[in-house]
Amino acid sequence: MSLESHQPVSNASAVQEPQARAALAPVWLIVLMFMLLYCGAVYFDQNGGWFDSRIYAPYQTYTELESFQPKGGGPDLARGKAVFDTICALCHGANGEGKPGQAPPLAGSEWAQGSPDRMIRIPLYGLSGAVSVKGQQFNLAMPAMGAALSPDDLASVLVYIRTSWGNKGSVVTPEQVSAIKAKVGNHPQPFTVDELNAIQ
Ligand code: HEC
After folding, report:
1. pTM score of the predicted model
2. Residues 91, 186: one domain?
3. CB-side exposure of 167: number of CA atoms within 13 Å?
4. Cβ count near 100 (within 10 Å)
5. Given pLDDT bands bounded at 50, 70 and 90, which one contains residue 65?
6. By C-alpha distance, which of 130, 149, 106 is closest to 191?
7. Last-in-domain residue among 67, 96, 118
8. What element of type H or E holds 54?
């Protein structure tokens, strides 16, 4: 048997076998791509600034840009609410409305919206004796409930109290808290209203 005998017997000249060969991309597609490339280059040339660092001034690096952002670590209302809910709400109520026989209200309180120098001292050192809040007389005692808090946390909870439930107090910063701690130092007894009122 010879190899030739296995070849299909066909009329080869009449039937074209399909063949795999590289097809040429249409010319219009190539032209279109060059046109797009050209337009892109022109656009970049006119608007891109050729990566000149002055174009991005004054922020030339990410680190530099970050250094211009407001510093983190300031009063944080979400943190303030969390601290309030775990510590202060126990006596002053979740909405700062106060609890009869336990604590006066913070919502609408002149102490909670007034001088930060006086207010900061209350959680740091406590308050005892007669106090008038929203025209009501109280004569209870609050321990130094905020003495263990960091200046950041205490500032955050005070800002939360001073700006919640319709209160309109100014912002208290951690620096103010630290300054009062340093100024007052050791004060084993809670403050009294007379002492607080003596502070300018
Ligand atoms: C154990 C209960 C208790 C806890 C907890 C407590 N307080 Fe008080 N707070 C009082 C009492 C009682 C008074 C009133 C003291 C008085 O009659 O002299 C008061 C008074 C105040 C006042 C001044 C009066 C007013 O109502 O505005 C402020 C401000 C204040 N507390 C803030 C806080 C903050 C901030 C916290 C949380 C860090 C806190 N308190 C946690 C019991 C508490």
Report:
1. 0.71
2. yes
3. 25
4. 7
5. low
6. 130
7. 67
8. none
Q: Take residue 71 and report the two structure tokens written for it.
A: 């510093």
- In tens, the pLDDT along 37-61 reads 999 999 988 887 777 766 666 666 7
C-alpha 57/C-alpha 59 separation (Å) is 5
- Give the residue, by CA position, lying nearest to ligand 1 atom 2: 91
Whole-number Å distance, alpha carbon 163 to ligand 1 midpoint, is 17
Tell me whether residue 109 is in a domain. Answer: yes
Q: Which atom of ligand 1 is nearest to the CA of 138?
A: 17
- Looking at the fold, whether 52 and 82 belong to one and the same domain comes out as no
**How many domains is the chain built from?**
2
149 and 54 inside one domain: no
- For the CA of 193, the closest atom of ligand 1 is 18
Mean pLDDT score, 132-153: 96
Residues with CB under 6 A from ligand 1: 87-88, 90-92, 103-106, 109, 111-112, 119, 122-123, 127-129, 131, 133, 138-142, 145-146, 157, 161
Query: How does pLDDT run across 74-88, given as a tens digit for each residue?
Result: 578 999 999 999 999
Residue 173 maps to which CATH number? 1.10.760.10
On average, the pLDDT of the chain sits at 87
Structural domain range at position 133: 77-197
Within this chain, do residues 106 and 48 fall inside the same structural domain, yes or no?
Answer: no
Which residues are 130's β-sheet partners?
139
pLDDT for residue 1 is more than 50: no
